[in-house]
Amino acid sequence: MSPTRPARDRDSQGPEERPVLLRIASFLYLRPSLVLALLLGPPLVWMIVVYLGSLVFLLIQSFFSLDPFTGQVIRVLTLATYKDLWTPANLDIFFRTATMAAVVTVTTAVLAFPLAYFMARYASTRLKTVLYLAVLLPLWSSYLVRVYAWRLILAKEGILNWFIQQLDLTRVLDLLLRAPVIGGPSLSVSFLGMFIVFVYVWLPYMILPVQAALERVPRSLLEASGDLGARPGQTLRHVTLPLAFPGVIAGSIFTFSLTLGDFVVPYSLGNSSFFIGQAVLSLTGTAFNIPLAAAFTVVPMGIMAFYLVGARTLGAFDAL
Amino acid sequence: MRSEANESRGRAPLSLRLATLGVILFLHVPMAIIFLYAFTTDDATFSFPPPGLTFDWFGVAVHRPDVWQALLLSLRVALIATLAALVLGTLAATAVYRSKFFGREAISFLLLLPLALPGIVSGIALRSAIGMADFPFGFWTIVIGHATFCIVVVYNNVLARYRRTGRSQVEASMDLGADPLQTFRYVILPAIGTALLAGGMLAFALSFDEIVVTTFTAGHEETLPIWMFSQLTKPRQRPVTNVVAVFVIVLTAIPIFLANRLTQGGSE
Question: At which of A80, A110, A129 does a domain end?
């Protein structure tokens, strides 16, 4: 940060005696818009040139196409790539990813609520700090390590199967795994396993905004509801839940967006049916079809833009 | 702020307490299992219960050059990215706090965008732009990607601290005759110091763990998360991965604890 605070002119000191830095400071004091430009310039240039520039460039690339014979990108604007995108196989990928994101989001919301509610309503200040850290720690700790943990847990010879065997529930698990779509050869290669891991890794992102929203529900409102004769269940349904909803929406921005764009979990636990992240990665990594990969990412970008606008109207940004 | 006198609601219902406990266990038991498997004698499968326990894997991990290379690269990237984020985030926070200008509200949104958009979007966007600019993929391209999404963490922390501190101290300092440099050195810096430290540590943790954007910008370099990802698909001496994972958990837990301490009561 540069010294930008106003300088006091001191009569005892002539301008020629003052150190250079102070003279610069006085010079800047008289020019607030220059100060603003100096402060805002570097971060703004970085974000606009490096980040927005890249995003726009990506968008443009999705209107280029790949020459099927040479594999070179043809820099002519065309909709051909979007036509390639519109195949049943790719639509399957979008549908699969969006469904997973939606199911994961709903599940995290259901799991997050009791903990958030307990933290906001019942926990003592001390316990609340402990719980807060207990949620924060997994949120910030290595996401890859956390995915890896589930590889250990879900492995065929791993701890979960061991428990299932001890409890004599192997047949129930087999039945689950034989189910269409969610099943697979084992928990570590199935949509069911993937779903568990997604819920696990994104759950803290849901807990925190829901807790923040519940924290802001005024106690007097709940008391008023009780005084007016509502049973606790009714207060929960008609007062607490609606007020917590913006928090759920705020959390869902993260859980939804993170699931849409992830490729680590599908690669570690999935089978050959791709998710958006995997498709993009393989298109850039092995197929070198950047235009199609770009077009692929336009879909989650569009879904998220739509989602963010919706979230904004529901007041979720105040809960962030 | 809640007054403790209002705490007349008493104890939570048993079902709620059980649900809370269940969620907390769900979040933390998997971590404990990683610790357990770092000591197993079985290096080919993930058999449970472990056939035996040993400390050997810690020694093996220390002598694996690939682990060290990945770790050092991650540390160097995180350090530089954090420094860049500290400078840019503080500048942006200062500008937003002290002046009103057209588009001020958009700044927060712009800075948050790299975290809010799916990682693959940012990843492939940076990759194609960097490839277009003919910039060689490697250390610096990883740093560019990481700094971009770390800025917002520093920005949020510093801005929250500015808002809490208020302007009066700075004004008092000037009224008492301090020059801008003295005001910066003795008033502003101490006020935002811990926010910078907290933001910096969170940015460090964020960069140290990032994989999605990194995959697209790393070229042939291998950061620690990329190393771990490769171990997920083609493992070699599985418990070594666990030893590294334990190390990563501990290394990221420390800054989070400290950052929480430093910002307590405010900028969450």
Answer: A80
Q: Which runs of E-coded beta strand occur in chain A?
A: 65-66, 73-74
Q: Which ipTM value was assigned to this complex?
A: 0.80
Scanning every residue of chain B, which has its alpha carbon at the shortest distance from the alpha carbon of A49?
B129
Nearest CB to A148 within list B101, B110, B232: B232
Same domain, A110 and A256: yes
The vertex-B196 CA angle with B194 and B200, nearest 5°, equals 115
**Same domain? A121 vs A226:** yes
Last residue of a domain, one of A62, A80, A98: A80
Q: Domain check: are A169 and A296 in the same one?
A: yes
Q: How many domains does one find in chain A?
A: 2
Query: What DSSP letter does each residue of B192-261 carry, written as one string?
Result: HHHHHHHHHHHHHHHHHH--HHHHHH-TT---HHHHHHHHHHS-SSHHHHHHHHHHHHHHHHHHHHHHHH
Range of the domain at A34: 15-80
Q: What percent of chain A has pLDDT over 70?
A: 92
Tell me the pLDDT tens digit for each residue of B82-122. Answer: 999 999 888 888 888 877 777 777 787 788 888 877 888 88
What is the pLDDT, as a whole number, of residue A246? 83
Residue A266: CATH number of its domain: 1.10.3720.10
Residue pLDDT, tens place only, B211-242? 888 888 887 888 888 888 888 777 677 778 88
Same-domain pairing of A94 and A162: yes
Which residue is it, tokens 């490769």?
B230
Do B129 and A58 count as a contact with CB atoms less than 8 A apart? yes
Please state, in angstroms and rounded to a whole number, the distance separating the CA atoms of residues B255 and B259.
6
Non-local (6+) Cβ contacts of A130 within 8 A are none
Cβ contact, residue pair B48, A162, below 8 Å:
yes
Taking only the tens place, the pLDDT of each residue in A157-210 is 888 888 888 888 778 888 888 877 777 777 778 888 899 999 999 999 899 888
pLDDT band at B42 (very low <50, low <70, confident <90, very high): confident
56-85 in A: which are within 8 Å (CB) of B?
A: 57-58, 61
Average pLDDT, chain B: 80
In a domain, A227, yes or no: yes
Which residue ranges form the domains of chain B, and what is each CATH number? 11-54 (no CATH), 64-262 (1.10.3720.10)
